[in-house]
């Protein structure tokens, strides 16, 4: 049996007035996802346990069968694994976004204008983070470049009991009430403030501003945690696996799960990502492993930007180039199962993650099923003939074991 999981990050949504009360999933043309739903086992799953923030880290751990109550230790340590940054037991890892702040006339207040600095290129960002490390790095604090706006800070012996707000949760808001609060908060606040001095006059930002791009004029620290301790996927399910994603978070989970991380050129985590390459590499990987996890970030990014047109486009590209390609190619295997789902909702109107239950479908090549009138969107959640998983991590057990 071959298993493949297709995750459209943040794909679920809520009704939008401009779409006539429909969601982007309902409005998008998704014949491949709809075909899976018509012939698959359908259901609702809550990937975010009560009391947890509605993050992709928590949600993707749940999808892969890891109970966040047992195995979640923070977002940044997962990204550190993907970036090849080895954490010591007393290290506190923090996600370090390059953001765009809009300063008031007196320069005493600032609004979070963009959590991604206009999706700054990896090359530009690497130069900025390298210089931040030269200026602000010490024997106990270091900065490590990642992909686009997503980077890492490691604080040896650092504090973890600090409330840090994700920057994508405060778009358009004045940042004063959202700065880090808690144990040794002054360290993080000072780093963030000092970064504005370094970045505002940096040559990379001067060049970006000249061409009308948003400057990466501050760092934003959040998502802290320590190195997790979790069993490999093979130990849990006796399956060798592979994972493909453009984002360090998903790749980090895959590394801790013991997966092969597939390298695909042109994957960006944005609307211009290489959807087709992900699908083709995954089908090839299935020739030597039994489980592949495909994570696509683009719908989530569109949700954060508040652009329903971009979200529809991302969903349609996901359907045509990822889901469609997998469905065409996976038939070469005798027996297979496909799990299709969002990891969480990222509603366009709120521009951040929510803990709403999300729809899923399991297509099994050996089962004959017909769900009349079903399409892959949030209306699945309202049907009475669906399975429901209140504890999201149990869905993987059902997908693999059928019970």
Describe this structure in words.
- By secondary structure, the chain is an alpha/beta fold.
- The chain has 2 domains: 2-72 and 229-401, 3-Layer(aba) Sandwich (Alkaline Phosphatase, subunit A); 91-225, no CATH class.
- Helices cover 33% and strands 21% of the residues.
- It contains 14 helices and 15 strands.
- It has helices spanning 24-27, 31-38, 56-63, 68-71, 75-82, 122-136, 185-200, 203-210, 233-237, 248-256, 275-285, 298-305, 308-329, 394-401, and strands at residues 2-8, 41-45, 91-103, 110-114, 141-147, 150-156, 162-163, 181-182, 218-225, 241-244, 260-261, 291-296, 336-341, 358-364, 387-389.
- The strands form 3 sheets. Strands 11-10-12-1-13-14-2-15 form an 8-stranded mixed β-sheet, with helices on both faces. Strands 3, 4, 5, 6 and 9 form a 5-stranded antiparallel β-sheet that branches. Strands 7-8 form a two-stranded antiparallel sheet.
- α6 (122-136) crosses α7 and α11 runs parallel beside α13 (308-329).
- The radius of gyration is 21 Å and the shape is globular.
């Amino acid at each position: 049996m071959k298993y493949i999981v297709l995750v459209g990050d943040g794909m679920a949504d809520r009704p939008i007035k401009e779409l006539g009360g429909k969601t982007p999933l309902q409005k998008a043309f998704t014949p491949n996802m709809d075909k899976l739903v018509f012939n698959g086992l359908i259901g609702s799953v809550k990937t975010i346990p009560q009391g947890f923030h509605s993050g992709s880290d928590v949600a993707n751990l749940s999808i892969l069968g890891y109970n966040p109550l047992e195995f979640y230790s923070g977002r940044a340590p997962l990204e550190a694994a993907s970036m090849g940054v080895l954490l010591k037991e007393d290290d506190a890892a923090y996600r370090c976004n390059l953001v765009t702040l809009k300063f008031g006339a007196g320069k005493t207040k600032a609004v979070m204008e963009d959590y991604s600095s206009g999706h700054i290129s990896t090359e530009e960002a690497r130069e900025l983070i390298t210089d931040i490390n030269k200026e602000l790095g010490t024997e106990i604090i270091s900065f490590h470049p990642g992909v686009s706006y997503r980077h890492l800070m490691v604080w040896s012996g650092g504090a973890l009991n600090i409330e840090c707000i994700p920057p994508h949760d405060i778009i358009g808001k004045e940042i004063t009430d959202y700065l880090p609060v808690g144990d040794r908060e002054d360290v993080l606040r000072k780093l963030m403030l000092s970064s504005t001095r370094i970045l505002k006059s940096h040559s990379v930002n001067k060049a970006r501003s000249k061409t009308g791009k948003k400057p990466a004029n501050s760092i934003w620290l959040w998502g802290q945690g320590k190195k997790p301790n979790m069993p490999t996927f093979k130990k849990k399910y006796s399956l060798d696996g592979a994972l493909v994603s453009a984002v360090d978070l998903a790749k980090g989970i895959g590394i801790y799960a013991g997966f092969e991380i597939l390298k695909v050129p042109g994957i960006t985590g944005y609307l211009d990502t290489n959807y087709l390459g992900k699908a083709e590499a995954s089908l090839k990987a299935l020739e030597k492993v039994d489980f592949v996890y495909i994570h696509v970030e683009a719908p989530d990014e569109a949700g954060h930007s508040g652009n329903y047109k971009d979200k529809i486009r991302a969903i349609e590209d996901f359907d045509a180039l990822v889901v469609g390609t997998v469905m065409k190619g996976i038939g070469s295997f005798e027996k297979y199962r496909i799990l299709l789902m969002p990891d969480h909702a990222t509603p366009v109107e709120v521009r951040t993650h929510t803990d709403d239950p999300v729809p899923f479908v399991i297509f099994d090549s050996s089962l004959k099923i017909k769900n009349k009138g079903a399409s892959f969107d949030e209306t699945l959640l309202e049907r009475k003939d669906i399975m429901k998983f209140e504890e999201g991590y149990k869905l993987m057990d059902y997908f693999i074991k059928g019970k």
